[in-house]
Design a protein that fits this description.
- This protein has 274 residues and is of the alpha/beta class.
- It has helices spanning 17-27, 34-41, 45-54, 70-79, 89-94, 112-126, 140-149, 154-159, 168-190, 211-225, 245-252; strands spanning 31-33, 60-62, 65-69, 101-107, 131-135, 163-167, 196-200, 202-203, 230-237, 258-261, 268-271.
- Strands 4, 5, 6, 7, 8, 9, 10 and 11 form an eight-stranded mixed beta sheet that branches. The protein has a three-stranded antiparallel beta sheet with strand order 1-3-2.
């Protein structure tokens, strides 16, 4: 049985709807600017602008300016509230996930990755979203086989242009970080800005001699994904063979918008405020 690492850095602590409403009413006007929201949440203006532009935070566009209604900010904060568990992976994947999203999953065994991705992509297909599977340690033929056995019609989806499987390790060897980032940008262009769902898993064992390089890549990837219409799942596996892998997993947290925690029978999705 895999042991699931649990960790996330949260910038806002929520105690309930009444507390949120009371705090907002005391500190903020009813029609807010980007700067108002940024100062209240202690985040950068560009972060709030990105939320507004992507629709993650409902906002009113007035020329070059944005205004956010107090009730919309309330709903935004409540949607990011951390609870005591979301019940099941299906509940998490069917809740209000919307692009841009970059989700970290921290694991100590590789085997659960396939089943996790399969459930993720099944929900994407139910929503009518095209999907991208990026292969690092996983082989493309194994993805074809495992996904097909689980009921995902891989060949048919590929023919219809609704699924793309990429060898990201090969892209990285050829073009470095930029080669991989270009793949994600190309997918956004391929589907004309339509929201798509994607997944790419890493074995940290493969980066044990290049931690700084890996962290730099993940940082650059996060910047790109946050500007694309993508809900991205990133299962990262740190096995006991590389003791420092657990530490490096924790270093990845700031480079994702949230962390999927799979603990016992009640998985939770912890979403950062930045």
């Amino acid at each position: 049985m895999a042991y699931w690492l649990i960790f996330n850095r949260l910038n806002v602590t929520f105690y309930g709807k009444n507390a949120i409403l009371e705090k907002i009413e005391k500190m903020l006007p009813k029609l807010l600017t980007i700067d108002d929201v940024a100062k209240y949440l202690s985040v950068d203006d560009n972060t709030v602008y990105r939320w507004c532009r992507s629709g993650t935070l409902p906002a009113i566009k007035l020329g070059r300016d944005w205004r956010i209604e107090q009730q919309d900010l309330e709903g935004f904060l409540l949607s990011r509230k951390v609870g005591r568990g979301d019940g099941s992976l299906k509940n998490i994947f069917t809740r209000r996930l919307s692009a841009p999203e970059h989700i970290l999953v921290m694991l100590t065994e590789a085997e659960p990755v396939f089943s996790l991705e399969i459930e993720f992509f099944k929900e994407a297909l139910k929503k009518g979203k095209p999907i991208v599977k990026g292969c690092w340690w996983q082989k493309q033929e194994d993805v074809h086989r495992r996904y097909s056995e689980a009921g995902i019609p891989v060949r048919e989806l590929e023919k219809q242009g609704k699924m793309f499987i990429a060898d990201l390790w090969e892209q990285y060897r050829k073009g470095g970080a930029q080669g991989v980032l270009d793949i994600w940008r190309e997918m956004a262009e391929k589907w004309n800005g339509q929201e798509f769902w994607g997944a790419g898993s890493h074995l940290l064992d493969e980066w044990k001699d290049n931690w700084a390089e890996f962290l730099y890549f993940k940082s650059e990837l996060h910047k790109v994904l946050c500007d694309l219409p993508v809900v991205a799942l990133c299962p990262c596996v740190a096995t006991s063979a590389v003791p420092e892998g657990a530490r490096e997993l924790l270093n990845l947290v700031p480079h994702h918008s949230g962390t999927l925690v799979l603990a016992t029978d009640r998985p939770s999705f912890l979403r950062s405020a930045v």
